[in-house]
Amino acid sequence: MSGEAMRMRIELVQLMRRHQVAPKPFTPTALLPAVDHNVIVEGYAAPATIDREHAKFAGRCWLPFRKNIPLLFRHGRPAGEVQEVRSTDEGLYVRALVTDSEAKQCPYFSVAATVHHYMLRNVDDPERFHGLVTCATLDEVSITSTPANPRAVVAHRYPALPVAAYLAAQAESTALLIKGVGYLQRMTGVLADFVRASSAPERPPAPRHPIVPAVRRQTEFARLVEEINCREQH
User: Fold this and answer.
1) Which H or E element spans position 193?
2) For residues 30 and 75, what is the distance between their CA atoms, to the nearest angstrom?
3) What share of the chain is helix, strand, coil (3-state, %, to 5)?
4) In b/e form, how buried is each residue of 24-46, taking b as 16+ CB within 10 angstroms?
5) Mean per-residue pLDDT pooled into runs of 10, the chain (234 residues)
6) Is residue 144 a contact partner of residue 109, using CB atoms and an 8 Å limit?
7) What distance lies between CA 60 and its chain's CA centroid?
8) Is the full-model pTM beyond 0.70?
9) CA atoms within 13 A on the CB side of 215
10) What phi, psi does 25 have (nearest 5°)?
11) Are strands 91-98 and 70-73 parallel, antiparallel or unpaired?
């Protein structure tokens, strides 16, 4: 525990004595069912709410996170690995792979941090007084059954896929995505052709010319026949 954290703890104990209050009572949730496979857990490991010891981590109090933050079982032995940690207005959100058999059953998170700055808030209110941590470094994340903050619950727990199965699932998803893109491209081409055909101007009908009877040229033989007929009539 850092010097700042120790000073905050002492001042909070003094305020508890002054207001004649004890740590808030808490009945933890039952352990989760045992499983024989690794699990992924997610949730707020440090919600931006007042805990049982009247301390609170501000949602954005965290300094940049270092790599390979330890995941422990009750702040003791290793329990897996932290895969994601991010700071939000609601608190510190964590996703972790849990490999320890006992840790897999724990329904809560806890954190250990180095406190760099804090302030006391609502010191005259016996219900709302607390120490607000405004700057801290995350040292480790733990899986536990007895948290300091009852709201640091494991919100999601699901099986961790083996690497081979995960890669196969990713490959299948990629193949389906490629097929879907090809289908969309074909549909887009069909729609484009339809739009072009619908918007093209209609061609005017070809002009109709009157039918002119063919003029047959009179042959020499025909003229002789016509002349003989005329003579016979006269």
Assistant:
1) helix 163-199
2) 19
3) 30, 30, 40
4) eeeeeeeeeeeeeebbbbbbbbb
5) 90 96 89 96 98 96 96 97 97 98 97 97 96 97 96 97 58 76 77 72 63 62 71 62
6) yes
7) 20
8) no
9) 1
10) -65, 150
11) unpaired
What type of residue is 151?
R
Three-state SS annotation for 137-174: EEEEEEEECCCCCCCCECCEEEECCCHHHHHHHHHHHH
Largest CA distance in the chain: 157
Tokens for 13? Answer: 């104990």
- Beta-bridge mates of residue 62: 136
**DSSP code of residue 177:** H
Tokens of 95: 């996703």
- For tokens 């619908």, what's the residue? 198
Query: What are the structural domain ranges in the chain?
Result: 3-164
Helix (H) or strand (E) holding 133: strand 130-144
Give the integer Cα–Cα distance in Å for 122 and 8.
14
